[in-house]
Amino acid sequence: MHVSILGYESFMPEHEVDNDFFEIDPKRLKRGMFAGAHLRRHVERETCSAMLAQATRKLIDRFSLDVETDIDLMMTHVNLGDQFFSGHGLILAKMIGAKPKFIYDLENSGCISFVFMAQLAQTLMQQGMVKTALLGCAQAAGGRIYSHPDLRGKPQASIPGDGCGVAYLRAGSESPILSVETCSYPEYSEDMEIVYPDGRKWWEPGIGPFSVKFDRSKIAKVITRGNAMVPGAVHAACRPLGIAPKDIDFLVTNQPNTLFLRNWREALELPPERHLNTFSQYGNLFGAAIPVTLSEATRDQVLFDGARVCLAGFSHAGDYAGALIYQHGRRYSEA
């Protein structure tokens, strides 16, 4: 059985932030690990659940969905949640009036969560447990963390942007997933950490915002891992199809910075116009980057029927990686 990705939609906060907002030496914004973003959106009062609902309503209208019967499975990934308890999928279902059979919040796998969710949805459909799925990824660290006055001067503060993207999947061959590969690397699971200025644990009371710790030795290791993991995942996804990465029509990845974007497309021998991204206008959208970029590419009519589209990336300090290839918008024939 084939499983198809039928379409994408996105929602971006209204508040646009340029580089003048950050207290960073302009030279540092032009080179290195934390360079290249010119604009980004920051949440102000928006919740991640509300952003997901806004994007989902666009999908509902576009495909004329009956929310009570046309969404069997709902999965969400949010990197900085609205609350600790119910999860965003349950709140999203409440907001749009949906009654899914299954609701899962996939809170690991970070920047590559969309591929992991699509793989899980495909598995459940092939087992006959569901026929349709709504996937959603939202990011809010830009406005919720790095807009704080105490953090604006950190080099990494200018990179995150906020927003969300959603996708609708259905059993069938309209726009089928052809191959998917995912990997987990437990040995890197503790290489990214949240720190507070007073050294407290995140659950302990105190004063002062937290941030993600980056030191030079870890940055070098993450760059080395990322440079290898993403091309490796793409090659692995291409192998069952008997194609090379250069045979891919479009590559869409997570977008940590311009350094990774350049290195990945060069390693895969793809020209810039075939590696789609929204980094310059939205910054690093973490898990939301892939569906947001595909939503914009759909809106701008960049994707053509029959195109092989590869979604790939890695997360955090290299603990998860994956790649998925699907054929866009044309019924697939194995013949």
Q: Structural class of the secondary structure composition?
A: alpha/beta
CATH superfamily of the largest domain: Thiolase/Chalcone synthase
CATH architecture of the largest domain: 3-Layer(aba) Sandwich
What is the name of the CATH topology of the largest domain?
Peroxisomal Thiolase, Chain A, domain 1
pLDDT averaged residue by residue: 93
Overall shape: globular
Integer count of domains: 2
Biggest sheet architecture: 5 strands, mixed
List keywords for this structure.
single chain, 335 residues, alpha/beta, Peroxisomal Thiolase, Chain A, domain 1, 2 domains, five-stranded mixed sheet, 14 strands, globular
Write up this protein.
- There is one protein chain.
- This protein has 335 residues and is an alpha/beta fold.
- The protein folds into two domains: 3-174, Peroxisomal Thiolase, Chain A, domain 1, CATH 3.40.47.10; 178-186 and 214-327, Peroxisomal Thiolase, Chain A, domain 1, CATH 3.40.47.10.
- It contains eight helices and 14 strands.
- It has helices at 48-63, 88-96, 113-126, 141-144, 216-238, 258-267, 279-282, 289-299, and strands at 3-11, 16-18, 39-41, 73-78, 102-105, 132-139, 163-171, 177-184, 194-195, 211-212, 250-253, 275-276, 308-315, 320-327.
- It has a five-stranded mixed beta sheet with strand order 1-7-6-4-5, with helices on both faces. The chain has a five-stranded mixed beta sheet with strand order 8-14-13-11-12, with helices on both faces. A two-stranded antiparallel ribbon has the order 2-3.
- Helix 1 (48-63) crosses helix 2 and helix 5 (216-238) packs parallel to helix 6.
- The model has no long low-confidence stretch (mean pLDDT 93).
